[in-house]
Specification:
Layout lengths: L1 H10 L4 E4 L2 E6 L2 E6 L3 E4 L4 H7 L4 E3 L2 H19 L9 E10 H9 L3 E2 L11 H13 L6 E5 L5 E5 L1 H11 L2 E3 L33 H8 L2 E3 L3 E3 L5 E3 L7 H8 L2 E10 L4 H12 L8 H8 L3 H11 L3 H7 L7 H15 L1 E3 L2 E3 L3 E4 L5 E4 L6 H12 L4 H17 L8 H11 L10 H8 L2 H4 L9 H23 L1
Parallel strand pairs: 7-9, 8-14
Antiparallel strand pairs: 1-2, 2-3, 3-4, 4-5, 6-14, 8-9, 10-11, 12-13, 15-16, 17-18
Helix pairs in contact: 2-3, 5-6, 9-10, 11-13, 11-15, 13-14, 13-16, 16-19
Length: about 475
């Protein structure tokens, strides 16, 4: 079995090294998988490992485990493909400016900054705000805010919303009670959604004072921020009651803003995608869907999240528990993206280039599928940002109607789920998706040949979709006789 795996990784030009009698597959430049004669060992824990293998780290070979290992390696490689995106026509430059603390707070209240829907929720505790305030008082460097200019000439924060809002709360002598009950019942997991507070709008439009908006939405608490000196003396550092000579220093403390300017390209979203990913590599690297949420968030994406957040029994049965890194959102996205981007003519799916006629009569060119789901999903996500409410609602209804057809209460493999959805989108007949139909597909040799290694290759995707379409049509015909 070891030789079979080694043959596969050599055929696919996957980096590996040998040490004594052991082989090590290198993924991300690190020893990732240790290969022995009768077993393999996962050296680096990832979501993909948990997803495919469960909790075992050392796995003895069976034919099924070999297939899982190949799928695992393919998942890791696929996940990293998108970072290799290069557009030689792109010109990216940074505009670095320094704004005084007092000016930054004033600009924030005037609506010059926006938190994109892509950003994670606010999570900072009172203690973290206090530590940031101590850095400000002592003149220690505050990490830069990274932003880009939106169509309203507001600065959309790519990185730094936690610091920006924490500085503002400090200036008001307040903090958001993360641990307490939120006034907004939709808030979960002790985080606060500030995106509706600092949202895209025309600058200068009349609205409430920012602190009043925060108080209406969240449970704000007054507090006294303190600094503990080396001699264990405790001093108040509340901004509103600082001594005039100290406050003058704090007001002029510089905060760096780095504005990302992308020129000479129609692919700004892809560039921001990579920048957003790079800015978030300091901690646990973001997965592709987390990055998409960070750049392409729109009404369409809000709809996908809404479906995923609902307590839909069928969806949770066929997918499983809610995924904390967005794999369930990614699968819902794949449903619509494959339906939208793949060509279907005369009862056959084709992944060649074609033109798609939009509902408004406009035609757009769809490039051929490039053996990469991340690229496909990014391309579609960019298109989906322009969807009107009516089109978003149409896709929501299609997903829910698909769920209604499923009379099966067990988990279904993701590739099969995707295949069933896109095939269903092309079939007009009334039918239900039963355990009998699922078993027919799962046991079909041609289908099984398309879901192993290299399942995202153009030829295998086409064969898989056309085979599922053929089986479903035969099933419907047999049950209507």
């Amino acid at each position: 079995m070891k030789e079979k795996i080694l043959d596969w990784i050599k055929e696919n030009n996957i980096e590996f090294r040998k040490e004594n009698d052991k082989y090590y597959i290198l993924l991300g430049g690190k020893d990732h998988i240790e290969i022995e004669n009768d077993r393999f060992k996962i050296l680096i824990k990832t979501d993909e490992w948990e997803w495919i293998f469960g909790r075992k780290r050392v796995i003895k070979y069976t034919e099924n485990d070999y297939n899982k290992l190949i799928s695992y390696i393919a998942e890791i490689l696929e996940e990293n493909k998108v970072y290799n995106y290069v557009d030689t026509g792109v010109y990216v430059r940074e505009i670095t400016s320094q704004v005084s603390f007092s000016s930054l707070m004033s600009q924030l209240e005037k609506g010059y900054f926006v938190i994109p829907k892509s950003q994670r929720n606010y999570v900072w505790s009172r203690e973290k705000i206090e530590n940031l305030a101590i850095s400000l008082i002592r003149g220690m460097p505050i990490p830069p805010l990274y932003a880009y200019r939106n169509d309203n000439n507001q600065l959309a924060i790519l990185d730094g919303q936690q610091r920006l809002m924490s500085l503002y709360l400090y200036s008001k002598g307040m903090y958001i009670d993360i641990e307490g009950d939120s006034k907004n019942e939709d808030e979960k997991n002790k985080t606060k959604n500030l995106k509706n507070i600092l949202q895209e709008k025309k600058i200068g439009s009349s609205e409430e004072i920012l602190i009043d908006k925060l108080a209406k939405e969240f449970k704000l608490k007054e507090t006294s921020y303190k600094l503990r000196t080396i001699g264990k003396k405790i001093e108040d550092i509340n901004y509103l009651t600082l001594a005039p000579e100290i406050k003058a220093l704090v007001d002029f403390r510089p905060i760096t803003i780095i504005e990302i300017l992308v020129q000479n390209t129609e692919n700004k979203e892809e560039v921001y995608y990579n920048i957003f990913g790079n800015l978030n590599q300091g901690g646990e690297p973001l997965k592709n869907q987390e990055l998409r949420d960070g750049i392409y968030r729109s009404n369409f994406y809000d709809m996908l999240h809404d479906i995923n957040d609902r307590n839909n029994e069928t969806w949770r049965n066929i997918y499983g528990a809610k995924h904390n890194r967005g794999r369930d959102i990614e699968l819902l996205l794949r449903f619509i993206a494959t339906e939208y981007m793949f060509n279907f003519v005369d009862g056959k799916f084709s992944l060649e280039k074609h033109r798609k006629k939009l509902e408004n009569g406009e035609e757009i060119k769809i490039n051929t599928f490039q053996n990469s789901y991340p690229k496909l999903l990014n391309d579609f996500s960019k298109i989906s940002m322009s969807f009107e409410d009516e089109e978003v609602k149409k896709y929501e209804n299609k997903i829910l109607a698909f769920f209604d057809k499923i009379k099966y209460k067990k988990k279904i493999d993701n590739l099969l789920l995707e295949s069933l959805y896109i095939v269903d989108s092309k079939i007009q007949d009334k039918y239900t998706i039963t355990s009998e139909l699922i078993k027919k597909i799962e046991n079909n040799d041609d289908y099984k040949d398309c879901i192993g290694a290299g399942s995202s290759s153009k030829s295998k995707v086409e064969r898989r979709l056309n085979k599922v379409y053929e089986i479903v049509k035969e099933y419907i015909g047999a049950n209507n006789e």
